[in-house]
């Protein structure tokens, strides 16, 4: 079997569109994840509202298994080394990362990139996932983002 049909079977190249934004999507761990295909200037409230419009919220990393699955999704989509924003921030208190939408603290076992978080130049208050780890960075970079949509029961 060639690579393209195998990827199509996995749902990697499934593309949906919401509010004029194109997404790759994949379901695992009882949720659907939407990865924006085109980089744009990130805004936590705006992107979370877009995710809400799809029935979810910006990615909330709840455990290592979820972080690993998202990393594989990024790899399969060709965006493993790109900046992809999650829904985590420490805007309320430096170094105390929580989820913007649910207000839950970031999973304590989340795998940070080497020497992260570092709040470089005192202005890194959002979180991105890239190359298997997470990193704090400026909240307004041009990048992709990922939504998490719980399956309805």
UniProtKB/TrEMBL annotation:
Residues 1-20 form the signal peptide. Pfam families: Lectin_C. Residues 28-148 form the C-type lectin domain. It is found in: Secreted. One of its GO terms (molecular function) is growth factor activity. One of its GO terms (cellular component) is extracellular space. PROSITE patterns: C_TYPE_LECTIN_2 (PS50041). This is Collectin-11.
């Amino acid at each position: 079997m060639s690579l393209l049909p195998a990827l199509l079977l996995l749902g990697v190249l499934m593309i949906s569109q919401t509010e004029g934004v194109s997404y790759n999507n994949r379901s695992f761990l009882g949720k659907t994840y939407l990865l924006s295909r085109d980089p744009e200037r990130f805004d936590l409230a705006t992107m979370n509202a877009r995710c809400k419009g799809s029935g979810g919220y910006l990615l909330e990393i709840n455990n290592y298994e979820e972080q690993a699955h998202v990393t594989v999704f990024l790899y399969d989509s060709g965006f493993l080394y790109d900046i992809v924003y999650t829904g985590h921030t420490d805007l309320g208190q430096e170094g105390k990362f929580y989820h913007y939408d649910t207000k839950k603290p970031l999973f304590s076992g989340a795998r940070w990139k080497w020497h992260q978080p570092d709040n470089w130049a005192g202005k890194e208050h959002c979180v991105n996932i890239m190359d298997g780890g997470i990193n704090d960075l400026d909240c307004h970079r041009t990048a992709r983002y990922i939504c998490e949509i719980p399956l309805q029961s």
